[in-house]
Amino acid sequence: MNKRLFVLTSVAVALLLMVVACGTPTTPAPAPTQAPAQPTAAPAQPTPAPAQPTEAPKPTEAPAGQPTAVPTPTIPPPVLTTTEGCAPNATKIVWFIGLGAGSQPDDVKKEKAWADKYNKSQTQACVVLNVVYNTGSNSYDALRAQIAAGNPPDIVGPVGKAGRANFLGSWADITPLAKAAGFDLTKYDPNLLEFTKDEGVLVGIPFALFPSFIYYNKALFDEAKLPYPPHKVGEKYDGKDWNLENFTELAKKLTVDAKGNDATSKDFDAKNIKQFGFFEQWTDGRGVGTFFGGGLPYDPKDPKTAVIPEHWKAAWKWYYDAIWKEHFIPNADYANSDQFGKGNVFSSGNLAMSWVHTWYTCCFDLKKTSWDIAVMPTINSKITAKLHGDTFAIMRDSKNKELAFQVLTQMVVDKDLYQIYGGMPAKVEDRAAFFAGLDERSAPNKVDWAVAEEMLKYPDLPNHEAWLPNVAKAKDIFDKWQVFLTQTPDVDMDKAIAKLQADLDAVFKEAPAQ
Amino acid sequence: MATLTRLVSAQTAAAAFVSRRAVRTFASTLIVTVIGLGVMIVFLTPIGYMLATAFKPDSQLTAQNAPLWPAKAATYNYQGKDYPLYDVPTSTGIKRLALIRPFREDSDVFDPAHPEQGVFNVKGRWRTWSPVYEFSLTLENFVTAWDQVNFTLLFRNSLILAIISTAGTLFSCILVAYSFARFRIPGKNLLFIILISTIVLPPQATIIPLYILFTKLGWTGTWLPLLVPAFFANAYDVFLLRQYIMGIPRELDEAAMLDGANPLRTLVSVIIPQAIPAITAVTLFHFFFVWNQYFEPLVYLLGKEELYPISVGVGAFVTTFNNYPGRSAATAAVALLLPAVMFFLAQRQFMQGVVITGVDK
Amino acid sequence: MSGRASRERNWGLLMLSPWLVGFFAFQLLPIVFTVLLSFTDYHGTSEFKLGNFNFVGFENYLRLVTDPLILPTMGVTLKFALIGIPLGLVIPLLFALLVNSKHLIASSAFRTFFFLPTVIPIVAGTIIFNGVLNAQSGWINLSLKALGISDPPRWFSDPLWAGFALNLLAVWGLGNAMIILLAGLQGIPTELYEAATIDGANGVQRFFSITIPMLSPVIFYNVTIGVIVAFQYFVPALLIGQRNGDPQGSLLFFPLHFYRQAFVFSEMGYASVLALVIFVVTMISTGLLFFFGQRLVYYAGGES
């Protein structure tokens, strides 16, 4: 009997496996959904009841014990919450969110609302969200798996240059899509278009601009009985020029230890700092260098040779001394501590001035904090407000590029989306409405948004996120560099910078030929 | 008389003996428990930190000189606004004053005990004064977490996934482990090494081929990629069960075999009862493995939020730690509650294991 | 082959079949795929299909020789393993003995609390640990300062301490190992202890002559799995060092190096070579363990 039993069972198991492989629901494991096998198939389900937990079967009905006896009905019918308003034959357009802003739980609600609104407004496309909150780099990994399986999303965004660099070559060229759709790209500022190109390929329609400026905490200035920083370029601060020297002095006065000594005092205790004067929030090595002006880390005539601009070196040394000698910028330990908001330093209320972009309106209490914004100081007789310009991109392997482009043209002009991402509309006439929306969120604070408009006139040229040879690796080096500066005491900066340049040079030389 | 004396002294000796034994037992219990408590306090510091964060308003984390335990800053309402109270050293002793407007070297304060004085200025640095805090548990973070996260759905999804997957794992792994432990099969050692080799590649190296496979099968967007492989055994659990079964004396199953039981009967009637502690361990092991699995469900279920397990469903909330530490910690704490209770109930099995095998150390 | 032997073989294979099927269905593919990729120049930015990659022979393997990060990253992983494996053996054993002790009051609660960290998802656990070990506000350093240590370690900012901090995190999540040892302790027949006590063995003697040998199968399991896990370890490092192995490469574990090649730099071919290095090194270590370690293990059921 045994041999027969063995053969029979083996056959049974093999059959079982084949059945499983074909996805029929008569498997030892229940088929969780009757979802269409093809991920790209239109979601043509008759809209079932939404998956309200109250209507769903109780978990007590969940089976235990024998796997073969497991019934299927414990699982809700497939409901794509964002496809409720879709037309019956609409083509699914997957919008992937997670490489930049937009995956915060509060944002996702608004994005879903946008997709619903859009889906109801037309019959061709059905926008479905794929949202990954980026932990470690899960969102990047998930996107990569989708690409490798030939199952990529159609639209990705918002995404900046840094996020796109990890998938260089995966993006669709927008120019032919725009031409085919009769979309006029010439109405955009050529500089802006240039800014939206990766290695010469236009990868998105300019959407939002994120100039940077100084966010300042008014309460902390009041406490120190110091006047607020200037809101206009050329304005004096306390009768003095708004330059690096006076900016540094101010930041030191706004840095206070537990006993109430500020960083200009000789009694100042650097091990017990309770308030910092300045922070360059969430940027990399290039961003830190750009405080002193835009630049490129290579020789423009020979991109394979790393040459670090002198003013970047100066900016890094200033930054390093500010952290470890003058103590008015928090080091990594302080910045990541509970008292300083675990890295979100301005939100803690213990930071006087933070240099960051308009998108930072995402991440602190706009109402409770008493805040306003100020212009950048003049450094080496020029003003630099580094600029971000995120966009939405289409994946090269998307199966519905033309339709995705249609959706894209609607996204880049949508007032609601500007609000979600805190991006100034690329189109000037939309800005008043944008700022009015921010004012509503910030009340009772009255923020001087003219500062943001003015800082847009002083972008970093070349941009701190500009193209680099071997971009993923080069960017990696600049990420590490910033962390290194904030984590490491007693660094010989000249030596460290020389090493950085050598590392960059090696990476640039590795770059594939153009 | 002498007899009596002897009797009494014998009695005392017996009593002394009994009490000495009781004292010794009591002493070892005390020592072991105290050591255990000490270790546990150190060990649970991170969880204490998490809970403290969850029960604090976020403002307490960033406030200066705030206590580490959850507390509420005592305030005084002056003209419709709340101001924090500080114990301020003055020439006439320590006074409890409301800090109306802080400055570096002096501050505007208000004395609730002497409202007639109005707001007045005192010299001295407010940062050196001690703020007044009262112990208080803030539930706000939990309320927000509960409102934002559909815990019912997520818990249910995770439970279903974990139960089915664990059932499949137990079923397949017990069979396979029994086979590896007890049967003479040609090339068994090689097979066992191959089995081990399947868990040696880093999971990140396997995710792309598996994702491609499951996409081609049309399984992405369903639970199948998370459930089906569980029915085909895995090296971690097979290896563990094999080790345990190999530790069970052979006489027991040989006796059953001699009685005419076939191997399956032997497995059910002899091996499984003997291996209950190990099976319990594997059950817990695998159950919580599925419970905490993060990246796989994330990738396979992308966009299907109604199918997310708790690990993925709370991911975005737990990791926004720098924006909303309290809410994030509260979410993590709620997500932890159910598995903790389940473990507490399940580990009683280890006590029962003692009864079944008659082992009492 | 005798009838009995072939009968035994058939039964054995039958019961093995779930795994054999699963091996060919799910477990073999990733290994074959990785080997295949290691001979290609597939760049993870397009669909994996013919035409999107070329076979490049042993080119990726040759890169191993010139890669300056091989040795340092191996060093990080080895250091972690050399500290982590012994800790992962001894501490769970002590915990298991503690919660198995009849002298412990409320041992159920102790079991639950020692296991609790294991139930916390690794992402949340790492974030919490990062908070607890923060040099300024972390509870550990606040306690150390309260004990009079004025300059406690800067843990995750200091390359000297960061690796060890992750060892602590790993120890924190050792509930599984504790449970496995606890199960092992439950399986030791009481008669053995009784007999030994009658023979006059004291507690320490009983521990080394009975408990350890009887536990040796599961100890062997814990060591083997400990080795495999240690050679794969890097996810918390990824969360703490922002994919870069910060501080200063001290958390650049070998598998993180692999991960960066694959998922940050899109060099799937070379990444596969690195994955295979992990595979080979781990298999060799496991093989050595089986070859030498197995002899130290006492199986009451005998070797089969």
Structural account:
The complex is a heterotrimer of chains A (514), B (361) and C (304). By secondary structure, chain A is an alpha+beta fold. Chain A has helices at 2-22, 105-121, 138-148, 161-165, 174-181, 190-195, 218-223, 244-253, 285-289, 310-324, 332-335, 401-411, 415-421, 431-442, 450-455, 471-487, 493-510, and strands at 91-97, 125-131, 155-159, 197-198, 201-202, 208-217, 256-257, 273-280, 298-299, 302-306, 351-357, 371-374, 387-388, 391-394, 424-425. Chain B is an alpha+beta fold and 361 residues long. Helices cover 61% and strands 12% of the residues of chain B. Chain C has 13 helices and no strands. Chain C has helices at 3-37, 59-66, 70-100, 107-119, 122-132, 139-146, 159-172, 175-186, 190-198, 203-232, 235-240, 254-264, 268-293. The chains are: A alpha+beta (514), B alpha+beta (361), C mainly alpha (304). Chains B and C meet through helix 1, helix 2, helix 5, helix 6 and helix 7 of B and helix 1, helix 3, helix 4, helix 5 and helix 6 of C.
What fold name stands as the CATH topology of the largest domain in chain A?
D-Maltodextrin-Binding Protein, domain 2
Mean pLDDT of chain A equals 83
Give me the CATH fold name of the largest domain in chain B.
Answer: MetI-like fold
Strand content of chain B: 5-15%
Q: What structural class is derived from the secondary structure elements of chain B? A: alpha+beta
CATH classification class of the largest domain in chain A: Alpha Beta
Secondary structure tally: strands of chain A: 15
Tell me the domain tally of chain B.
3
Indicate the overall shape of chain A: globular
Which residues of chain A form runs of ≥5 with pLDDT under 50?
1-82
